[in-house]
Amino acid sequence: MKTFRVLAALAAFAVAPVAQAADSSPQDECLSPGSNALLKEGCAALDNFMKTFNSRDGKAWAASLNFPHSRIAGNNELQVWETPEEYAKSNDVAELAKAKNWDHTDWTTRKLVQQGEDKLHFVTQFTRFDKDNKPIGTYDSLYIVTKKNGKWGTQFRSSFVGIIGKKTAF
């Protein structure tokens, strides 16, 4: 019950549009994190998340996460995976490729908005592309990256993209 209350509170958190630079280009703090060690750790975890997602390897993708892993997608549909095995089993990324003509996804922006020694909140935006590198869609999201047992990994996500299949994370 406590987990549900925490997740419900996070669901109420409104993801603000990503800040834009004066030249109107999106900012991705991960491209030049400076000397902020926590930002570097969080960016590395987000890069690993995206690399493993694009690899279409469910086990590798699950290994980039911390558990229990939660996602609120589309119209506030809460999904929770307790273990990496459960996550990998229900997330065959080939389904996304078939359903949406998806080929790969790239970060558009990542901005660290809150940080603690073992938890980082990133406001992000990502774009999905087809095999011709044409955008399919761009989505705002909130990623919470945590450090558990010495490992940084994505533990919570909230985005405005829907779900294509039962218990899938895309």
What does the model show?
It is built from 5 helices and 6 strands, in the order αααββααββββ. The chain has 170 residues and is an alpha+beta fold. A 6-stranded mixed β-sheet has the order 2-1-6-5-4-3. It is globular, with a radius of gyration of 15 Å. The model is unreliable at 1-24 (pLDDT under 50).
SS-based class: alpha+beta
Q: Strand share of the residues?
A: 35-45%
Mean pLDDT rating: 84
Helix content: 25-40%
Number of helices: 5
- Strand runs, count: 6
Distance separating the two termini: 25 Å
List low-confidence stretches: 1-24
How would the global form be characterised? Answer: globular
List SSEs in N-to-C order. Answer: HHHEEHHEEEE
The biggest sheet amounts to: 6 strands, mixed
In the sheet with the most strands, the strands line up as 2-1-6-5-4-3
Radius of gyration, CA atoms, in whole angstroms: 15 Å
What brief labels describe this structure?
170 residues; alpha+beta; 6-stranded mixed β-sheet; 36% strand
Short characterization:
The chain contains five helices and six strands, in the order αααββααββββ. By secondary structure, the protein is an alpha+beta fold. The two termini are 25 Å apart.
Task: List the topology elements.
Layout: H1 2-12, H2 37-55, H3 58-63, E1 65-73, E2 77-81, H4 84-90, H5 94-100, E3 104-116, E4 119-129, E5 135-148, E6 151-159
Parallel strand pairs: 1-6
Antiparallel strand pairs: 1-2, 3-4, 4-5, 5-6
